[in-house]
Every structure is written in structure tokens, then in C-alpha cells.
């Protein structure tokens, strides 16, 4: 009398579908990471070890010649506060990224920080990685 079962299950696992999924995810993240761009004027930022990014942000750039830009649009200092408030909107959920050139006078950066503090806005000071 033969008591062994006729249906034998093969315990091996095929990993080819799992590797396909991993490669597709890798390609997806590599492509989407190259599409992220900052809408700001190119300047030389000071160096620091931290790194910050925020998708809901407004870039306030201060050039070495003390010119102010909001998202690549030149703005005079007198209209800076009103333009920042217009871009942030009523909800004030956007963050201000302050991008000051490394040679800009400290008082110009502090003027933008004062505007953000006065209006209770979130802000980030942008720096260049090491």
C-alpha cells in the first residue's frame, strides 16, 4: 500500500517578478527626482551641513547687489512685503525660502526675516551643502 501523495508542491519561490517591481520603482524615483527644480535666481549660497526642501514654498532671493526677487520676479524693497503676502495667500500655508547670496549684507536678510516674523509666516534659510 502506497501512502505517499501524488501531488507534490514545489517549495521554491520565483523572484523574477519581485525584481521587476524593484527596478520599475527605481526608475520611477530616478526620473521624478530629476524633474524637481527650484524657481529662483542662481546665486552662491553660504555653506552648511543641513539640507531642507519644501514643495509648497516661495523663494525670496537677495542678490549680491541687494536686489530682491520673488520666484524669479524682480521686486523693489518697498513692495516686497505686499508681494510676499500676495504669493503666500490667505491661508499662509506656504513657506518662504530665503536665499541670500553669500556676499549680501546681513541687514538685507534680516529685513526679509522681519517681514516673515511680523506676518507669522514659516521661513527657511537656504544654504549650499558641503
Structural class based on helices, strands and sheet pairing: alpha/beta
Compute the CA-based radius of gyration.
26 Å
Query: Residue ranges: pLDDT <50 for 5 or more in a row?
Result: none
Percent of residues in helices: 25-40%
| Portion in beta strands | 15-25%
* CATH hierarchy: architecture of the domain at 57-125: 2-Layer Sandwich
Indicate the CATH topology of the domain at 57-125. Answer: Nucleotidyltransferase, domain 5
State the CATH class of the domain at 57-125.
Alpha Beta
What is the number of helical segments per DSSP (H or I, 4+ residues)?
3
Give the beta-strand count: 5
How many angstroms separate the termini? 77 Å
Order of helical and strand elements? HEEEHEHE
Cα shape = elongated
Q: Please outline the major beta sheet.
A: 5 strands, mixed
Quaternary structure classification:
single chain
Widest beta sheet: strand line-up:
3-2-1-4-5
Q: Give the overall pLDDT as a whole number.
A: 80
Short overview:
It contains 3 helices and 5 strands.
How is the topology of this model organized?
Elements (H helix, E strand, L loop, with lengths): L15 H19 L22 E6 L5 E3 L2 E3 L1 H12 L6 E6 L5 H13 L4 E3 L5
Parallel strand pairs: 1-4, 4-5
Antiparallel strand pairs: 1-2, 2-3
